[in-house]
Amino acid sequence: MRKALAVPAVAIAAAAFPLLTVSAASAHEGAHSYQADLGSVNMSGVTGTGMVTLDGNTATVMIEATGLLAGSPHAQHFHIGALGECPSNDLSDDADGDGFVSVTEAAKYYGAIGTSLTTTGDTSPDSGLAIDRFPTAEGGSISYERTFEVSDDVHQAFEDGTAVLVVHGIDKDGSGAYDGDVMSDLDPSLPMEATAPAACGALEVAQMGAAPAGGAETGAGSTTGTENTAAIGVGALAAAGAVGAGAVAYRRRQAAQA
Predict the structure, then answer these.
(1) DSSP state, 221?
(2) What is the per-residue pLDDT across 58-79, written as a single tens digit (0 to 9) for each?
(3) pLDDT tens digit string along 118-148?
């Protein structure tokens, strides 16, 4: 089986999230923490770390990512329903040879959108296209924190080990904008750079056993640079949620965690 992209976890998470704590209350309530080490897709150079704490269906999400296209919005999602893995960074998954691992080519690994990691408002797959509510990478970095409710199927994907964190949007030609001659597999009026996955990490039980503290209120967000709301095309990211849905059945539920 293909291994999910990963780098040493504990040191990165400790540096990115210095306020991580474990409280007696969260332990009593059965909260569980998950971590994703974001590795580059499409040779984007994007790296980072995501931390998620689930207490029931309440998720506190923290993402730190660098190497992104500065000044541009970057869609980010929990993807579910497939293998819980990431495509290769070396373009070996570029089946059609166009120089990109597209959403269509990557979906067999990480599946469809389960949650849209927006800065405000709705977080369902319906908001997969809400570019005005995804963070903008001012200076090429994103620092995101938000607390909200996830659906039962997303919670189940975390327990099954099939939840994946994906950040979209790359600048392959170094022009400083989403452009180029290769058009998106989701919407042929858009450049592929606008919708291609830039970074990916499988969400696994956090080895530190830690949980983010002090998350934003449900319905609010805290991110770097949400001023730039340039749209990259109506319907494009909604289509991303549909690609690969049901392509691979959920694995059997793992034994209950202690």
Answers:
(1) -
(2) 999 999 999 999 999 999 999 9
(3) 999 999 999 987 888 999 999 999 999 999 9
C-alpha–C-alpha distance, residues 73 and 231, integer Å: 8
Give the residue from 201, 56, 224 showing the smallest Cα distance to 135.
224
Fold topology of 9-242: Immunoglobulin-like (2.60.40)
Dihedral class, residue 173 (left if φ above 0, else alpha if ψ from -120 to 50, else beta)? alpha
* SS3 label, residue 126: helix
The two structure tokens encoding residue 160: 């099954």
Contacts of 82 (CB under 8 A, 6+ apart): 107, 108, 109, 110, 111, 112, 162, 164, 244, 247, 248
- Separation of CA 171 from chain center: 18
What one-letter code names the amino acid at 44?
Answer: S
Q: Are 168 and 184 in contact (CB under 8 A)?
A: no
Pairing of strands 197-202, 32-40: antiparallel
AA letter at 6: A
Q: What is the pTM of this model?
A: 0.73
